[in-house]
Design brief:
three-stranded mixed β-sheet; GMP Synthetase, Chain A, domain 3; alpha+beta; 139 residues; N-terminal domain of TfIIb; 3 helices
Length: 139
Amino acid sequence: MQATVKWVDGAQFLAESGSGHSVVMDGPPDHGGRNMGVRPMEMLLMGLGGCASFDVMSILQKARQKVVDCRTELTAERADATPAVFTKIHLKFIVTGIDLKEAQVKRAVSLSAEKYCSASIMMEAAGVEISHEFEIVSA
């Protein structure tokens, strides 16, 4: 896996993935940015959410669950000192579908957390406290 990050101006950078996709990262105005993109730590949090969401959806689809929507809400706490690393992250999966089985959703969330989500497992190994919950909504 590869990526390139190129400085644009001030606190703005353009990141490009090895697969050719780009995203703008920028800082807040009080740190030389223009607020034109996500912050780098927000990218980490979104990456974790994407990794876990991908796992949960893949597992539910393989279990033939009729999912019509899946949203993952993430909340994070950071250390007050420098470096302001993540200390806690909570993921809440809101899965909407037809006749979803609670046991299947619970299993998907657990498998993602314990076995498949590389981002989550890596952050936990670094000392981040990660918690999960889910909510099922009938379509």
